[in-house]
Amino acid sequence: MKLMFLGAPGAGKGTQAEIVSEKYSIPAISTGALLREAMANGTELGTLAKKYVDSGSLVPDEVIIGIVNERLSEKDCANGYILDGFPRNVSQAEALDKMGIKLDLVVNIHVSDERIIKRMSGRRVCKECGKSYHVESSPSKVEGICDVCGGELIIRKDDDPAVVKHRLDVYHEQTEPLIDYYFKKGVLVTVEGQEVKDDTTRLTLAEIEKVRNK
Ligand code: ADP
Ligand code: ZN
Q1: Is the CB of residue 56 below 6 angstroms from any atom belonging to ligand 1?
Q2: What's the mean pLDDT when you consider all of the chain?
């Protein structure tokens, strides 16, 4: 099963991707998380990506396509995977097509810009393991500390309000055309992002089950 989550920054793609990953035992591949990991480790890729990520612009296609290609050739991807944050524009989607990869389902999580902006201001992420939290909707057990690894929770540099605004512009301009792209391929479903994360999960799993039973 090859799935992809589409949606604005902060729509909840990563959260849903993790839940679905556990349920079906297939890896969730987040290009954003791969980039943040590279940045934290100060690798060549991380150094290159930093200025794009911190300012909320897209990292060049050839860089991202290379990373994804490599990641998808790993053993754990043999039974399927969930793409989170890739493809993010039409040329990345075409690159995926050229790799011979056919997605079974693209779940478009819809959340209004207004709600996105509200959500992002409460977002926190573990400095060590990357798990994300929200001060209101999914707080950690101990404030400022990761439930999973005890790491410190920080605000992502690109969650700054001005950067969020730019990321939304980038989303509308470059990523939103993918809704039409995948609709035309007959693999798109839209799920209305709910305030309560479990409600979005229920809607999402119902769509995945329909495809699995086909
Ligand atoms: P969000 O979905 O909340 O914006 P991500 O973690 O998916 O967060 O992405 C964070 C940043 O990483 C993006 O703003 C962009 O700079 C970079 N990035 C992630 N995925 C891609 C991609 N497929 N192509 C180009 N840049 C990407
Ligand atoms: Zn952690």
Answers
A1: yes
A2: 94
Distance from residue 153's CA to the centre of ligand 2 (Å): 8
Rounded-to-integer distance, Cα 81 and Cα 7, Å: 18
Taking Cα atoms as reference points, which of 161, 148, 84 lies closest to residue 122? 161
Looking at all shown ligands, the one closest to residue 125's CA atom is: 2
**DSSP of 137-148, one letter per residue?**
TB--SSTTB-TT
What pLDDT digit, counting tens, does each position of 40-77 carry?
899 999 999 999 999 999 999 999 999 999 999 999 99
Q: Is the CB of 85 under 6 A from ligand 1?
A: yes
Contact 139, 147 (CB under 8 A): no
In the reported structure, the alpha carbon of residue 147 is separated from the centroid of ligand 2 by a whole-number distance in angstroms of 7
